[in-house]
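Journal club prep — side note

Before the paper discussion, L.F. wants everyone to see what a predicted structure for a comparable chain looks like in C-alpha coordinate form. Sequence:
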Amino acid sequence: MSSVFNPVKIKLPSGHFIGGRYVEADASAAKIEVISPSTGQTVGSIPCADAAWVDHAVCDARAALVRSGWGGIAPRDRLKALHKWADLIEENAETLALLEAVCSSRPVADARAGDVCVTAEQIRFFAEFADKEGGNLVPVADGHFGYIADAPYGVVGAITPWNFPISMAGWKLGPALAAGNAVVIKPSEMTPYSTLYMAELSVQAGIPAGLINVVLGDGPVTGTALTGHPGIDKVSFTGSTRAGGAIMENIARTGIKPMTLELGGKSPMVVFADADIDLAAECLDRGIMPNAGQFCVAGSRMIVAREIADELAAKLAERFKRYRPANTLAEKAGFSPIISEKQLSRIDGIVRASIDAGGHILCGGERFDCEGSYYQPTLIGAVDENNPAVRDEIFGPVATFQTFETEEEAMELACHATYGLCAGLFTRDLSRALRLTRQLEAGTVWVNRYGRSRDHILPTGGWKASGIGKDLGQEAYRANRRTKSVLIDL
Protein backbone atom coordinates (compact mmCIF):
# COMPACT_ATOMS: atom_id res chain seq x y z
CA MET A 1 0.00 0.00 0.00
CA SER A 2 1.30 3.50 -0.81
CA SER A 3 2.57 5.54 2.11
CA VAL A 4 3.11 9.23 2.67
CA PHE A 5 6.35 10.54 4.12
CA ASN A 6 6.45 13.75 6.13
CA PRO A 7 7.60 16.49 5.89
CA VAL A 8 7.68 16.38 2.09
CA LYS A 9 4.39 14.48 1.74
CA ILE A 10 5.42 12.63 -1.37
CA LYS A 11 3.52 9.55 -2.42
CA LEU A 12 5.86 6.58 -2.60
CA PRO A 13 5.40 4.11 -5.47
CA SER A 14 3.88 0.84 -4.36
CA GLY A 15 4.46 -2.73 -5.51
CA HIS A 16 6.41 -4.20 -8.42
CA PHE A 17 6.12 -2.47 -11.82
CA ILE A 18 5.24 -5.09 -14.43
CA GLY A 19 3.52 -4.69 -17.77
CA GLY A 20 3.34 -0.92 -17.43
CA ARG A 21 1.54 -0.82 -14.08
CA TYR A 22 2.05 -1.36 -10.36
CA VAL A 23 1.11 -4.81 -9.16
CA GLU A 24 0.74 -5.70 -5.51
CA ALA A 25 1.95 -8.92 -3.94
CA ASP A 26 -0.56 -10.73 -1.78
CA ALA A 27 -0.76 -9.93 1.90
CA SER A 28 1.24 -13.01 2.89
CA ALA A 29 4.30 -11.97 0.81
CA ALA A 30 7.48 -11.11 2.69
CA LYS A 31 7.96 -7.39 3.26
CA ILE A 32 11.15 -5.33 3.57
CA GLU A 33 11.17 -2.06 5.49
CA VAL A 34 12.67 0.97 3.75
CA ILE A 35 14.53 3.19 6.23
CA SER A 36 15.82 6.74 5.98
CA PRO A 37 19.53 6.79 6.90
CA SER A 38 19.17 10.46 7.81
CA THR A 39 16.82 9.69 10.70
CA GLY A 40 16.64 5.95 11.18
CA GLN A 41 12.88 6.15 10.63
CA THR A 42 10.93 3.68 8.51
CA VAL A 43 9.47 5.48 5.49
CA GLY A 44 7.71 2.56 3.82
CA SER A 45 7.91 -1.10 2.93
CA ILE A 46 8.22 -3.12 -0.25
CA PRO A 47 7.38 -6.70 -1.19
CA CYS A 48 10.21 -9.19 -1.70
CA ALA A 49 9.71 -10.88 -5.07
CA ASP A 50 10.11 -14.65 -4.95
CA ALA A 51 10.90 -16.88 -7.93
CA ALA A 52 7.25 -16.84 -9.08
CA TRP A 53 7.15 -13.04 -9.23
CA VAL A 54 10.48 -12.91 -11.05
CA ASP A 55 9.17 -15.45 -13.55
CA HIS A 56 6.08 -13.31 -14.06
CA ALA A 57 8.23 -10.24 -14.79
CA VAL A 58 10.60 -12.07 -17.15
CA CYS A 59 7.78 -13.72 -19.10
CA ASP A 60 5.98 -10.39 -19.38
CA ALA A 61 9.15 -8.71 -20.66
CA ARG A 62 9.58 -11.42 -23.29
CA ALA A 63 5.97 -11.08 -24.40
CA ALA A 64 6.28 -7.29 -24.58
CA LEU A 65 9.43 -7.60 -26.68
CA VAL A 66 7.67 -9.88 -29.16
CA ARG A 67 4.43 -7.91 -29.16
CA SER A 68 6.09 -4.52 -29.71
CA GLY A 69 8.78 -5.69 -32.10
CA TRP A 70 11.09 -3.32 -30.21
CA GLY A 71 14.27 -5.04 -31.35
CA GLY A 72 13.27 -4.88 -35.02
CA ILE A 73 11.50 -1.54 -35.38
CA ALA A 74 13.12 1.35 -37.22
CA PRO A 75 16.12 2.28 -35.04
CA ARG A 76 15.15 5.93 -35.28
CA ASP A 77 11.86 5.13 -33.54
CA ARG A 78 13.74 3.64 -30.59
CA LEU A 79 15.88 6.76 -30.51
CA LYS A 80 12.85 9.08 -30.44
CA ALA A 81 11.17 7.18 -27.61
CA LEU A 82 14.33 7.22 -25.52
CA HIS A 83 14.78 10.95 -26.08
CA LYS A 84 11.20 11.53 -24.96
CA TRP A 85 11.88 9.45 -21.85
CA ALA A 86 14.98 11.53 -21.08
CA ASP A 87 12.88 14.70 -21.47
CA LEU A 88 10.32 13.40 -18.97
CA ILE A 89 13.05 12.46 -16.51
CA GLU A 90 14.33 16.04 -16.59
CA GLU A 91 10.81 17.49 -16.36
CA ASN A 92 10.17 15.37 -13.26
CA ALA A 93 13.51 16.10 -11.61
CA GLU A 94 11.89 17.36 -8.40
CA THR A 95 9.84 14.22 -7.85
CA LEU A 96 12.73 11.91 -8.74
CA ALA A 97 15.10 13.79 -6.45
CA LEU A 98 12.69 13.53 -3.52
CA LEU A 99 12.10 9.83 -4.15
CA GLU A 100 15.88 9.39 -4.18
CA ALA A 101 16.57 11.46 -1.07
CA VAL A 102 13.81 10.00 1.09
CA CYS A 103 15.66 6.72 1.62
CA SER A 104 19.16 7.05 0.17
CA SER A 105 22.40 8.82 0.99
CA ARG A 106 21.88 11.34 -1.83
CA PRO A 107 20.99 14.92 -0.78
CA VAL A 108 17.90 16.11 -2.62
CA ALA A 109 19.72 19.20 -3.93
CA ASP A 110 22.51 17.08 -5.42
CA ALA A 111 20.09 14.58 -6.91
CA ARG A 112 17.99 17.36 -8.46
CA ALA A 113 20.90 19.32 -9.94
CA GLY A 114 23.22 16.41 -10.72
CA ASP A 115 22.02 12.82 -10.70
CA VAL A 116 18.76 13.37 -12.60
CA CYS A 117 20.31 15.57 -15.29
CA VAL A 118 23.26 13.22 -15.79
CA THR A 119 20.90 10.25 -16.11
CA ALA A 120 18.88 12.02 -18.81
CA GLU A 121 22.13 12.82 -20.63
CA GLN A 122 23.21 9.18 -20.46
CA ILE A 123 19.93 7.94 -21.92
CA ARG A 124 20.20 10.42 -24.80
CA PHE A 125 23.80 9.37 -25.34
CA PHE A 126 22.88 5.71 -25.69
CA ALA A 127 19.80 6.51 -27.78
CA GLU A 128 22.07 7.90 -30.48
CA PHE A 129 23.68 4.50 -30.99
CA ALA A 130 20.35 2.99 -32.05
CA ASP A 131 20.59 4.23 -35.66
CA LYS A 132 24.38 4.57 -35.92
CA GLU A 133 25.77 1.19 -34.83
CA GLY A 134 25.30 -2.00 -36.84
CA GLY A 135 27.02 -4.92 -38.53
CA ASN A 136 30.16 -4.74 -40.65
CA LEU A 137 31.25 -6.04 -44.02
CA VAL A 138 34.51 -7.96 -43.73
CA PRO A 139 37.22 -8.68 -46.33
CA VAL A 140 37.04 -12.24 -47.70
CA ALA A 141 38.26 -13.94 -50.86
CA ASP A 142 36.72 -13.17 -54.25
CA GLY A 143 33.62 -15.21 -54.86
CA HIS A 144 32.49 -14.88 -51.24
CA PHE A 145 30.50 -12.31 -49.30
CA GLY A 146 31.22 -11.99 -45.60
CA TYR A 147 29.69 -9.82 -42.94
CA ILE A 148 29.11 -9.64 -39.18
CA ALA A 149 25.48 -9.13 -38.20
CA ASP A 150 24.42 -8.08 -34.74
CA ALA A 151 21.16 -8.33 -32.82
CA PRO A 152 19.80 -7.67 -29.33
CA TYR A 153 20.08 -10.41 -26.72
CA GLY A 154 16.41 -10.34 -25.75
CA VAL A 155 15.69 -9.86 -22.04
CA VAL A 156 18.43 -8.35 -19.88
CA GLY A 157 18.43 -8.87 -16.12
CA ALA A 158 19.84 -5.83 -14.32
CA ILE A 159 20.66 -5.29 -10.65
CA THR A 160 21.60 -1.85 -9.35
CA PRO A 161 23.13 -0.70 -6.04
CA TRP A 162 21.86 1.72 -3.43
CA ASN A 163 24.51 4.45 -3.68
CA PHE A 164 23.36 6.22 -6.89
CA PRO A 165 19.99 4.63 -7.72
CA ILE A 166 18.88 6.97 -10.54
CA SER A 167 22.25 7.06 -12.28
CA MET A 168 22.82 3.33 -12.00
CA ALA A 169 19.37 2.61 -13.43
CA GLY A 170 20.28 4.84 -16.38
CA TRP A 171 23.53 2.93 -16.86
CA LYS A 172 21.63 -0.33 -17.24
CA LEU A 173 18.42 0.72 -18.95
CA GLY A 174 19.83 3.20 -21.50
CA PRO A 175 22.14 0.92 -23.48
CA ALA A 176 19.95 -2.17 -23.13
CA LEU A 177 16.85 -0.44 -24.53
CA ALA A 178 18.76 1.45 -27.24
CA ALA A 179 20.18 -1.90 -28.36
CA GLY A 180 16.67 -3.34 -28.72
CA ASN A 181 16.31 -5.36 -25.53
CA ALA A 182 13.72 -5.56 -22.77
CA VAL A 183 14.93 -5.25 -19.16
CA VAL A 184 13.88 -6.72 -15.83
CA ILE A 185 15.61 -4.57 -13.24
CA LYS A 186 15.98 -5.05 -9.50
CA PRO A 187 16.95 -1.90 -7.60
CA SER A 188 18.40 -2.19 -4.13
CA GLU A 189 15.78 -2.97 -1.52
CA MET A 190 17.08 0.06 0.42
CA THR A 191 16.47 2.56 -2.41
CA PRO A 192 13.67 1.30 -4.67
CA TYR A 193 11.47 4.31 -5.32
CA SER A 194 13.23 6.40 -7.98
CA THR A 195 13.73 3.38 -10.25
CA LEU A 196 10.02 2.57 -10.06
CA TYR A 197 9.13 6.12 -11.04
CA MET A 198 11.62 6.07 -13.92
CA ALA A 199 9.88 2.95 -15.24
CA GLU A 200 6.51 4.69 -14.93
CA LEU A 201 7.85 7.65 -16.93
CA SER A 202 9.14 5.32 -19.66
CA VAL A 203 5.60 4.18 -20.43
CA GLN A 204 4.44 7.80 -20.55
CA ALA A 205 7.24 8.45 -23.07
CA GLY A 206 5.92 5.78 -25.43
CA ILE A 207 8.33 2.97 -24.62
CA PRO A 208 6.07 -0.11 -24.84
CA ALA A 209 4.74 -1.34 -21.51
CA GLY A 210 6.65 -4.35 -20.25
CA LEU A 211 9.98 -3.44 -21.81
CA ILE A 212 11.01 -2.16 -18.37
CA ASN A 213 9.78 -4.35 -15.54
CA VAL A 214 10.88 -3.62 -11.98
CA VAL A 215 10.94 -6.36 -9.37
CA LEU A 216 11.55 -5.44 -5.75
CA GLY A 217 13.39 -7.53 -3.24
CA ASP A 218 16.74 -8.52 -1.80
CA GLY A 219 19.77 -10.19 -3.31
CA PRO A 220 19.56 -13.70 -1.83
CA VAL A 221 15.94 -14.26 -2.90
CA THR A 222 15.05 -11.89 -5.75
CA GLY A 223 18.52 -11.33 -7.18
CA THR A 224 19.27 -15.04 -7.22
CA ALA A 225 15.98 -15.82 -8.96
CA LEU A 226 16.59 -13.10 -11.55
CA THR A 227 20.19 -13.92 -12.49
CA GLY A 228 19.45 -17.65 -12.59
CA HIS A 229 16.22 -17.41 -14.59
CA PRO A 230 16.46 -19.30 -17.92
CA GLY A 231 14.55 -16.50 -19.66
CA ILE A 232 17.24 -13.92 -18.86
CA ASP A 233 19.62 -13.69 -21.81
CA LYS A 234 22.25 -11.40 -20.28
CA VAL A 235 23.01 -10.07 -16.78
CA SER A 236 24.27 -6.61 -15.86
CA PHE A 237 25.22 -5.94 -12.23
CA THR A 238 26.84 -3.13 -10.26
CA GLY A 239 27.75 -3.81 -6.65
CA SER A 240 30.27 -5.46 -4.40
CA THR A 241 32.88 -7.96 -5.52
CA ARG A 242 31.45 -10.50 -3.08
CA ALA A 243 27.97 -10.19 -4.59
CA GLY A 244 29.43 -10.29 -8.11
CA GLY A 245 31.14 -13.57 -7.27
CA ALA A 246 27.84 -14.99 -6.01
CA ILE A 247 26.15 -13.97 -9.27
CA MET A 248 28.87 -15.64 -11.34
CA GLU A 249 28.44 -18.81 -9.32
CA ASN A 250 24.65 -18.70 -9.71
CA ILE A 251 24.90 -18.20 -13.48
CA ALA A 252 27.40 -21.04 -13.82
CA ARG A 253 25.08 -23.31 -11.84
CA THR A 254 21.80 -22.41 -13.56
CA GLY A 255 22.80 -21.83 -17.16
CA ILE A 256 25.64 -20.01 -18.93
CA LYS A 257 24.90 -16.47 -20.10
CA PRO A 258 27.00 -13.32 -20.68
CA MET A 259 27.39 -10.82 -17.89
CA THR A 260 28.71 -7.34 -17.20
CA LEU A 261 29.93 -6.85 -13.63
CA GLU A 262 31.06 -3.49 -12.27
CA LEU A 263 32.37 -4.35 -8.83
CA GLY A 264 34.35 -3.03 -5.89
CA GLY A 265 37.41 -0.86 -5.79
CA LYS A 266 40.26 0.24 -3.57
CA SER A 267 41.60 2.95 -5.79
CA PRO A 268 44.93 4.76 -5.28
CA MET A 269 45.57 8.47 -5.71
CA VAL A 270 49.34 8.95 -6.22
CA VAL A 271 50.78 12.43 -5.64
CA PHE A 272 54.35 13.27 -6.70
CA ALA A 273 56.39 16.10 -5.20
CA ASP A 274 56.13 18.21 -8.37
CA ALA A 275 52.30 18.20 -8.30
CA ASP A 276 50.20 21.29 -7.68
CA ILE A 277 49.62 20.59 -3.98
CA ASP A 278 46.47 22.72 -3.66
CA LEU A 279 44.93 21.03 -6.72
CA ALA A 280 45.93 17.65 -5.31
CA ALA A 281 44.33 18.43 -1.94
CA GLU A 282 41.10 19.48 -3.65
CA CYS A 283 41.03 16.37 -5.85
CA LEU A 284 41.91 13.98 -3.04
CA ASP A 285 39.09 15.50 -1.00
CA ARG A 286 36.64 15.15 -3.92
CA GLY A 287 37.92 11.67 -4.57
CA ILE A 288 36.69 10.26 -1.26
CA MET A 289 34.15 12.53 0.47
CA PRO A 290 31.18 12.86 -1.96
CA ASN A 291 28.28 10.66 -0.89
CA ALA A 292 30.31 10.01 2.30
CA GLY A 293 32.71 7.83 0.34
CA GLN A 294 29.95 5.49 -0.77
CA PHE A 295 30.93 5.09 -4.40
CA CYS A 296 32.92 2.37 -6.12
CA VAL A 297 35.60 4.63 -7.64
CA ALA A 298 36.39 6.33 -4.33
CA GLY A 299 40.08 7.17 -4.03
CA SER A 300 40.50 5.52 -0.66
CA ARG A 301 44.28 5.02 -0.76
CA MET A 302 46.33 8.23 -0.80
CA ILE A 303 49.96 7.61 -1.75
CA VAL A 304 52.10 10.74 -1.39
CA ALA A 305 55.74 11.69 -1.95
CA ARG A 306 57.40 11.91 1.45
CA GLU A 307 58.72 15.46 0.96
CA ILE A 308 55.21 16.91 0.65
CA ALA A 309 53.38 14.40 2.86
CA ASP A 310 53.12 16.48 6.04
CA GLU A 311 51.86 19.55 4.18
CA LEU A 312 49.29 17.61 2.16
CA ALA A 313 48.09 15.62 5.18
CA ALA A 314 47.51 18.87 7.08
CA LYS A 315 45.56 20.36 4.16
CA LEU A 316 43.39 17.25 3.93
CA ALA A 317 42.72 17.11 7.67
CA GLU A 318 41.64 20.76 7.56
CA ARG A 319 39.26 20.05 4.69
CA PHE A 320 37.85 16.89 6.29
CA LYS A 321 37.04 18.68 9.55
CA ARG A 322 34.79 21.19 7.76
CA TYR A 323 32.13 18.64 6.83
CA ARG A 324 28.83 18.76 8.67
CA PRO A 325 26.05 16.17 8.38
CA ALA A 326 22.65 17.14 7.03
CA ASN A 327 19.37 15.35 6.38
CA THR A 328 19.17 14.33 2.73
CA LEU A 329 15.87 16.23 2.47
CA ALA A 330 17.45 19.51 3.60
CA GLU A 331 17.39 22.12 0.85
CA LYS A 332 21.11 22.84 1.28
CA ALA A 333 23.18 19.71 0.72
CA GLY A 334 25.40 18.61 3.58
CA PHE A 335 27.54 15.60 4.35
CA SER A 336 25.70 12.40 3.44
CA PRO A 337 24.62 9.69 5.87
CA ILE A 338 25.89 6.14 5.72
CA ILE A 339 23.17 4.04 4.10
CA SER A 340 22.44 1.93 7.19
CA GLU A 341 23.49 1.30 10.76
CA LYS A 342 24.83 -2.07 9.66
CA GLN A 343 27.12 -0.44 7.12
CA LEU A 344 28.21 2.21 9.63
CA SER A 345 29.15 -0.53 12.11
CA ARG A 346 31.16 -2.27 9.41
CA ILE A 347 33.03 0.95 8.58
CA ASP A 348 33.81 1.60 12.23
CA GLY A 349 34.89 -2.00 12.68
CA ILE A 350 37.48 -1.68 9.90
CA VAL A 351 38.74 1.60 11.38
CA ARG A 352 39.14 -0.05 14.81
CA ALA A 353 40.92 -3.03 13.22
CA SER A 354 43.22 -0.63 11.36
CA ILE A 355 44.20 1.06 14.63
CA ASP A 356 44.80 -2.30 16.26
CA ALA A 357 47.11 -3.17 13.35
CA GLY A 358 49.20 -0.04 13.92
CA GLY A 359 47.26 2.61 12.00
CA HIS A 360 47.21 6.17 13.33
CA ILE A 361 44.13 8.41 13.11
CA LEU A 362 45.07 11.73 11.52
CA CYS A 363 41.49 13.02 11.74
CA GLY A 364 37.99 11.62 12.33
CA GLY A 365 37.70 8.01 13.31
CA GLU A 366 34.21 7.85 14.83
CA ARG A 367 30.56 8.54 14.11
CA PHE A 368 29.06 12.02 14.31
CA ASP A 369 27.12 12.76 17.48
CA CYS A 370 23.75 13.38 15.84
CA GLU A 371 20.56 11.69 14.68
CA GLY A 372 21.00 9.29 11.78
CA SER A 373 23.85 7.17 10.48
CA TYR A 374 26.72 9.63 9.94
CA TYR A 375 30.44 8.85 10.12
CA GLN A 376 33.21 11.43 10.38
CA PRO A 377 35.59 11.96 7.44
CA THR A 378 38.58 9.90 8.48
CA LEU A 379 42.23 9.81 7.46
CA ILE A 380 44.49 6.99 8.69
CA GLY A 381 48.29 7.06 8.50
CA ALA A 382 51.08 4.66 9.48
CA VAL A 383 49.56 1.80 7.48
CA ASP A 384 51.06 -0.89 5.27
CA GLU A 385 49.60 -3.18 2.60
CA ASN A 386 48.38 -5.69 5.20
CA ASN A 387 46.43 -3.14 7.21
CA PRO A 388 42.66 -3.78 7.00
CA ALA A 389 41.97 -0.18 5.94
CA VAL A 390 44.36 -0.61 3.00
CA ARG A 391 43.33 -4.15 2.14
CA ASP A 392 39.51 -4.02 2.37
CA GLU A 393 36.96 -1.93 0.50
CA ILE A 394 35.41 0.22 3.23
CA PHE A 395 32.72 2.06 1.21
CA GLY A 396 32.67 5.02 3.55
CA PRO A 397 34.44 8.35 4.20
CA VAL A 398 37.72 6.70 5.22
CA ALA A 399 41.05 7.04 3.41
CA THR A 400 44.53 5.78 4.18
CA PHE A 401 47.67 7.89 3.83
CA GLN A 402 50.95 6.27 2.75
CA THR A 403 54.25 7.82 1.65
CA PHE A 404 56.93 6.87 -0.88
CA GLU A 405 60.49 7.85 -1.81
CA THR A 406 60.84 6.62 -5.40
CA GLU A 407 58.64 6.20 -8.44
CA GLU A 408 59.08 2.45 -8.23
CA GLU A 409 57.91 2.42 -4.61
CA ALA A 410 54.88 4.53 -5.56
CA MET A 411 53.83 2.01 -8.21
CA GLU A 412 54.33 -0.90 -5.82
CA LEU A 413 52.04 0.76 -3.27
CA ALA A 414 49.46 1.67 -5.93
CA CYS A 415 49.11 -1.94 -7.13
CA HIS A 416 46.44 -3.64 -5.04
CA ALA A 417 46.38 -7.41 -4.73
CA THR A 418 42.61 -7.63 -5.29
CA TYR A 419 41.17 -4.52 -6.92
CA GLY A 420 41.86 -2.54 -10.09
CA LEU A 421 38.94 -0.20 -10.75
CA CYS A 422 40.46 3.30 -10.94
CA ALA A 423 43.59 5.29 -10.13
CA GLY A 424 44.59 8.94 -9.87
CA LEU A 425 47.99 10.42 -10.69
CA PHE A 426 49.18 13.92 -9.82
CA THR A 427 52.32 15.29 -11.46
CA ARG A 428 53.46 18.14 -13.71
CA ASP A 429 55.80 15.77 -15.56
CA LEU A 430 54.02 14.72 -18.78
CA SER A 431 56.52 11.97 -19.56
CA ARG A 432 56.01 10.47 -16.10
CA ALA A 433 52.24 10.71 -16.44
CA LEU A 434 52.20 8.89 -19.78
CA ARG A 435 54.65 6.26 -18.58
CA LEU A 436 52.87 5.50 -15.32
CA THR A 437 49.36 5.38 -16.75
CA ARG A 438 50.57 2.28 -18.59
CA GLN A 439 51.86 0.74 -15.35
CA LEU A 440 48.83 1.41 -13.16
CA GLU A 441 46.64 -1.69 -12.97
CA ALA A 442 43.23 -0.08 -13.31
CA GLY A 443 40.38 0.19 -15.79
CA THR A 444 40.39 4.00 -15.56
CA VAL A 445 43.25 6.41 -14.81
CA TRP A 446 42.78 10.11 -14.12
CA VAL A 447 45.71 12.51 -14.30
CA ASN A 448 45.63 15.78 -12.32
CA ARG A 449 41.95 15.20 -11.57
CA TYR A 450 39.88 12.51 -9.88
CA GLY A 451 36.39 11.35 -10.75
CA ARG A 452 34.19 10.83 -13.77
CA SER A 453 33.25 13.67 -16.07
CA ARG A 454 30.08 13.95 -18.13
CA ASP A 455 31.93 12.53 -21.14
CA HIS A 456 29.73 9.46 -21.40
CA ILE A 457 31.84 8.17 -24.29
CA LEU A 458 34.49 7.06 -21.77
CA PRO A 459 33.73 3.51 -20.61
CA THR A 460 34.07 2.48 -16.98
CA GLY A 461 34.93 -0.92 -15.63
CA GLY A 462 37.61 -2.68 -13.65
CA TRP A 463 40.55 -4.99 -13.86
CA LYS A 464 41.14 -7.94 -11.51
CA ALA A 465 38.28 -8.48 -9.04
CA SER A 466 36.84 -5.05 -9.87
CA GLY A 467 34.74 -6.39 -12.68
CA ILE A 468 34.11 -7.86 -16.12
CA GLY A 469 33.08 -5.75 -19.09
CA LYS A 470 32.26 -2.05 -19.28
CA ASP A 471 29.48 0.38 -18.50
CA LEU A 472 29.17 3.67 -20.40
CA GLY A 473 30.81 4.32 -23.77
CA GLN A 474 30.36 2.42 -27.01
CA GLU A 475 31.36 -0.70 -25.13
CA ALA A 476 28.19 -0.62 -23.02
CA TYR A 477 25.96 -0.43 -26.08
CA ARG A 478 27.82 -3.21 -27.85
CA ALA A 479 27.69 -5.38 -24.74
CA ASN A 480 23.90 -5.42 -25.16
CA ARG A 481 24.05 -6.87 -28.69
CA ARG A 482 25.40 -10.21 -29.83
CA THR A 483 27.11 -10.87 -33.16
CA LYS A 484 26.70 -13.45 -35.88
CA SER A 485 29.29 -14.16 -38.58
CA VAL A 486 27.89 -14.78 -42.07
CA LEU A 487 29.79 -16.10 -45.13
CA ILE A 488 28.04 -16.55 -48.48
CA ASP A 489 29.45 -18.21 -51.59
CA LEU A 490 28.44 -16.12 -54.58
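L.F.'s comment for the group: The CA atoms of residues 240 and 264 lie 5 Å apart. Keep this in mind when we get to the figures.
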